[in-house]
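Running co-folding for Broken Fe4S4 cluster.
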Amino acid sequence: MEKEMKKAKAPKVLDIKEATSCDATAQMLKKAERDGVETAFHRANTMKACPIGADSACCKHCSMGPCRLNAKDPYGKVGVCGATIDTVQARNFARMVASGAAAHTDHGMSMLDVFREVVNGNIADYSIKDPIKLEEVAQSIGIETEDRSVEEIARDLYEELERTYIQVEGEIPFAKRVPEKTLETWRKQGVVPRGAMREIMELMHRTHMGVDQHYENITKQCSRTALADGWGGSMVATEISDILFGTPTPVKAEVNMGCLKEDEVNIIIHGHEPNLFESMLASVDDPTLIKAAQEAGAKGINLVGMCCSGAEMLSRHGIPHAGNFMSTEAILITGAVDAMGVDVQCIKQGLGKVAECYGTKLFTTNPRCHIEGVEHIEFHEHTPRECTDSIVENAIVRFKNRTLPIEIPNIRNAGIHGFSHEYINYMLGGTFRASYTPLNDNIINGRIRGVAGVVGCTNPRVKQDWVHVEMVKELIKNDVLVVQTGCSQISLAKAGLYTPEAAHLAGAGLREVCETVGMPPVLGLGSCVDNSRILIATAEMVKAGGLGESIADLPVAGAAPEWMSEKAISIGHYFVASGVYTVFGVTFPIVEDTRFHKLLFEGLEEMGFGKWGFAADPHEMAHLMIAHIDKKRKALGIDKARERVLMDMADRQKLEAA
Ligand code: MSK
């Protein structure tokens, strides 16, 4: 017995300091351990990632396997059917793209369903809040708007955008927004998307056993499918959400767990589709429900967002945001959350257990997402308040019956959020000459070295927020303007970089621009579907002139330093296919030294697309992006301008010192 005990491994203790750089999450992880509660951080600590899966060297597409190939000797073995490592990896990668694209496009389709019902007068709870955006989107795809009513334009827009999903042949409507030269490359390579349903279906077919067994041909359909996400499903989700609920403009708001209030009924909405959150906003403003909360002894009802639903509402309405993906269990440990409503995507099943430990009422609301053991209150767009009122009522009951001690980390970080691509136009160009020309001018004259999109999740395999923050600090220090979405935006907001004062962390050139305009060096654009705003911004930069003719010519780069979801792979690949060098952190699901790896990391660029990159270290990641930006500046012949700017600064410093 004694011998057996000696042999038993000591349980692996979570090193909280290494798990997260978010102080509020760390505080809650300590409490979780005191309370005997387990989180995804603890599970990641004890669950060794499967090494074969991590290398994507395993195929389980049929029952002749699963076949394990050897990452150390990639061409030494093939699967039972004869599939090579390149076929296996390309198929695995393609299925990640298909799943991620399906998630975004299904989200977009839901928004389009709501839009159709609003236009047809079947939904009374929502309306067209931004008719100017409606016109602009309609015009961008060639719909006549002059002397026509909002309803007429909206009807045509619905019909046109429906093609984004169901069109069997021809190019999707938003292909009209793609710079001509980029579109030319897509046409030449045969990757202009048809409807997303067709592209995803074809990609799933091709990756079935015994169909497409050439990694180059699989990658081609990967690109087509990913583009159907970025310039299709995701873009529709963003544009329709803006039309229905308003286009974001800069708004001051707070993030972090200190947004919870001990003396109020706290409700969190977590997920992705904005309609649940919008109706919840109406519910918490309802005088009857406010009165009920007060009668239960609360000062009021406090509505807070998390994850991407939260990022979208933070941008659009300035609703406080409590934390990103890796904090969604941690916040329940405060004991202060009376109800959490979730819809789709990035909802950990583990939330159910943690909610149960602290008596939080957790509700799933979307027919696509139920969780075993968690109560489901279905959200119907035609009668949305039935669901959201019920969540509020349940939260009030829980508030009244609170018994456990409450511990809310006293941390809140104020910042400016809500930078849509339209607002960047006004901000830099002014109301009367709104355009991207001033941005391009500042890039051409070298004050701004280039633009980086830093997006994506947090992942317990790396220190939460740390990789995002270190990387972005390095970028802005080197005069790279950073635009962000999703959980990454919240990482940086918690680090205090969403204030104009954070410009002091930027290099001299970027700092000068930020101080002149009064903007932070890091601009938040919303949720993960809102990466489509970054695509439009790149198209606008091409249109404004002076930085080449295609997106691939621009001195820009992208990154997802702590990615974890298949959606992130789809996003990464649509940026690559659009012409952007995109660097991922954590791990990359492909064995190096294979032909497929070479294609993604080098070959695609030679074909006129962007390319993939990988580095685990944030500084290395930043410098890969900076080197790429400099390469593009050189190709554009604007590298000397930057040297002059640097010379000016040095001269100025010498003068100041004299
Ligand atoms: S929520 S996909 S963890 S960004 Fe969009 Fe955050 Fe990544 Fe989910």
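Result summary
The radius of gyration is 25 Å.
Residues 1-7 have pLDDT under 50 and may be disordered.
Job closed.
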